[in-house]
Structure formats: structure tokens, C-alpha cells
Design a protein that fits this description.
By secondary structure, this protein is an alpha/beta fold. The protein has 2 domains: about 280 residues, LarA, N-terminal domain (Rossmann fold, 3-Layer(aba) Sandwich); about 80 residues, Alpha-Beta Plaits, CATH 3.30.70. It has 13 helices and 14 strands. The strands form 3 sheets. Strands 1, 2, 3, 4, 7, 8, 9, 10, 11 and 12 form a 10-stranded mixed β-sheet that branches. Strands 5-6 form a two-stranded antiparallel ribbon. A two-stranded antiparallel sheet has the order 13-14. It is globular and about 55 Å long.
């Protein structure tokens, strides 16, 4: 049976975090089962962009600090790395993001090493994929002896949910990410790209920071939600299966996870997953807001879901909130946003939601494609 450990944790205090993390890992066989003295251990964080710790958009730096301390105590060399999303003046903002998120500071204080995936070189891999014979992944992923994936518990405006499976997208350095949004525009297709990364690189552990989660229109524009949980597993899909169940969703309702299931990335049947730690069954998070694009297979018929999807939301830029930073323009894989007017060409837009995801000022909003039709769809949902 695949194991997923769920720990209750209500704060980012260092002592509490270290205790909860150590107790959880002990349930999985102890640290000695995963790391050894002298190992170079890469902590692959969730660094979506230049977001602060209290935004709930990035893996909290104190969460990373606690793991760094634990690994240092076991005589490991600790690396902290990722490649952030988006572009500013044609350059990925990873260096700035590492500073704003607090990782640079904690690395100095804890004698850890920062690995900016955009400047560390790449390794060519050849996944069995329809999106090209070759893929280029950040070199530190392969140089490290152990890679620990540290996702954040968040919703996602395009992909519904982002966790252990999706967090590996940051292994593609810099602006190379735009290519994959372009060739794999739907969540189902994007899930295939994520599966390719998992199949090409080895991730030893997956430890989710779900203490302060993000609800609503994540992964950056949502609201903070105190979920107070840490999830751990050797299986990324099993961890995500448990996480979305906490939020009231099923695997078939999250396309990127459905793709991971088809590709055999791990266990997706809750009946085959053992829950341990502070919980023996999956806890439910009450009043957790899901993205507007979420469609419940329990609540809605397939026919109604098709009607709702026809009138679903698309990005729109609120000029009153816009600061003209042009992150949305430079980050759009299709070049669909006019630099001066910020008008979106919906004939070109693939609705990947990169603009919504990467805007630092929440100026990119999600609007109904057809206002009248949206009202009709909303009334239909209320009757169910």
C-alpha cells in the first residue's frame, strides 16, 4: 500500500516544523531511508514568481529552513532551487523571486546553496512524448544525489489544482516553459508534459507545505486559507489524490492529475492509499473556495458541464489595477496581449492563464465569455 502522511501543523515556528517533519518522515521509514551523510540534497521549492512568504503563493521559507536544518544535522549539503514563471523584459525573474521569497536570506543564514535553474545549465532528455523528441531540464536536478519536491497546496485558475505533480514544471528553465504552454494548451495536454518531466527525472520525496494554503483563483491571485497541514509521500500522485480529496474533489475533475494517472505516475485510488501521521483518514477542509473553472462531476451532469464550459471564463485586464509592468505581455506564450492597450486577442489566446497567474497586481481578472449566457448558466446551477 502506498503511504501518505498527514501532519497537523498550525504555525511556521522552526521547532514545531522540525518536530512535525521528523515525525512524519519516521512514518515513511526515517530519514536514513532517503538521505546519507555527504549527500547533495536539492530542495525543489515552488517559486511561482517574486512573491513574499505571507502570500501563500510560494513554499514558505521557514518550511524550507526547517528541512535545511534537519538535513544539515544529517551532514548533507543542501541546495535550494527552482525556475520561476513568467518574464520581465524578456528575462525570467528567478533571481529576483529567490530574493523576494526569502530563500536567499535563509540560504546565507543556514549555509545552504542557491541553485537558480535559469543559470545552472541543462540536461537533454528524450521522454516518450508527442511534444518533441527532446526536453531540456535544469542540470541541478541530475547533479543532486537526492531531490525533494516541496509543492504548495494551492488552487489553479486553469488547471484547478497545483501540487506535487505540477510543481516539477519549474524544472524547465526560464523562458523555455512558454514553448510547452504553446504546444500543450489544454490542461489534459499540459498534464502529459508534467508526466514527461516526472518520467525523466527522479524525485525521492514529496513534502507539501499546506499550512497556509491558497484558495479561489490561485496560484497567485487567490486568498490565503489556513489548512494547517503537511503532506508527505514518496508518490506524487498519491499525495495529490489525498490533497484534492481534502478539498472535496476527485481525480477525474483535475485534468493534469487524470493525465498523470493514465501515464502511471503513481497511485490514484484512495482505497489503495494508507493515511498515517496525525490522521488515519483524509480530513476535509471546510468552506474551501475552488476556482471558477472547477466542474463537479457529482453535482453536474455531463451535458450541463458542456454547457457551462461553453460559457466559461477567460482573462481580461483591468486597466485601473494595471501598473504597465508588461509581465503579462512578455509571459504570454502566444503573444496575444497588446503591449500598449493591454487588449487580449481572443482569437490567438489559448487561455493558459499565464497572464492571470503571473500578474503581481491582480490586474488580470477572469470574466465570463458571454455575460448573458453566464447568467443563464449560473441560474441553471442554482436549481441543481
Amino acid at each position: 500500500m502506498t503511504e501518505v502522511i498527514i501532519q497537523e501543523c498550525r504555525e511556521y515556528g522552526l521547532d514545531t516544523l522540525m518536530q512535525k517533519l521528523n515525525e512524519g518522515i519516521e512514518k515513511l521509514g526515517g530519514w536514513e531511508a532517503f538521505v546519507h551523510p555527504g549527500d547533495r540534497v536539492l530542495l525543489k521549492v515552488n517559486l511561482i514568481g517574486p512573491k513574499s512568504a505571507d502570500s501563500a503563493a510560494v513554499t514558505h521559507p521557514e518550511f524550507v529552513r526547517a528541512l535545511t536544518r534537519i538535513l544539515k544535522q544529517r551532514a548533507c549539503e543542501v541546495w535550494i532551487g527552482d525556475s520561476s514563471g513568467g518574464a520581465i523584459a524578456g528575462i525570467a525573474p528567478t533571481a529576483r523571486s529567490l530574493k523576494v521569497a526569502g530563500y536567499e536570506k535563509l540560504a546565507r543564514e543556514e549555509n545552504a546553496i542557491i541553485k537558480n535553474f535559469d543559470s545552472e545549465g541543462v540536461v537533454e532528455v528524450s521522454p516518450k512524448s508527442k511534444y518533441g523528441e527532446k526536453m531540456y531540464l535544469a542540470k541541478p536536478i541530475f547533479d543532486a544525489d537526492v531531490v525533494i519536491n516541496l509543492p504548495k497546496l494551492k488552487t489553479h485558475s486553469a488547471n484547478i489544482y497545483t501540487g506535487a505533480v505540477k510543481n516539477v514544471f519549474g524544472c524547465i528553465p526560464g523562458l523555455r516553459k512558454a514553448k510547452y504552454h504553446k504546444v500543450a494548451p489544454t490542461p489534459e495536454e499540459f498534464g502529459e508534459v508534467l508526466a514527461d518531466i516526472h518520467k525523466s527525472a527522479k524525485f525521492t520525496l514529496h513534502i507539501m507545505d499546506g499550512i497556509m494554503a491558497m484558495q479561489g483563483e490561485g496560484p497567485t491571485a487567490g486568498d490565503v486559507y489556513p489548512a494547517n497541514k503537511i503532506l508527505m509521500s514518496t508518490d506524487p500522485l498519491a499525495l495529490d489524490t489525498v490533497a484534492i480529496n481534502m478539498l472535496g474533489m476527485e481525480i477525474g475533475e483535475v485534468p493534469v492529475l487524470a493525465a498523470a494517472m493514465r501515464r502511471g505516475l503513481g497511485e490514484s485510488n484512495l482505497e489503495n492509499i494508507t493515511i498515517d501521521g496525525d490522521y488515519k483518514t483524509v480530513p476535509k477542509l471546510g468552506d474551501f473556495k475552488l476556482p471558477k473553472r472547477y466542474r463537479s462531476s457529482k453535482r453536474y451532469s455531463k451535458a450541463l458541464i458542456k454547457i457551462i464550459d461553453f460559457f466559461e471564463t477567460r482573462p481580461s485586464i483591468n486597466r485601473k489595477k494595471c501598473r504597465n509592468c508588461n509581465v503579462c505581455v512578455d509571459s504570454c506564450p502566444m503573444g496575444a496581449i497588446h503591449r500598449d492597450t493591454k487588449q487580449i486577442d481572443y482569437k490567438v489566446c489559448i487561455e493558459c492563464m499565464c497572464c492571470h497567474e503571473l500578474c503581481m497586481y491582480k490586474a488580470v481578472e477572469l470574466k465570463k465569455k458571454n455575460i448573458v449566457a453566464g447568467i443563464i448558466a449560473g441560474l441553471s446551477l442554482k436549481r441543481i
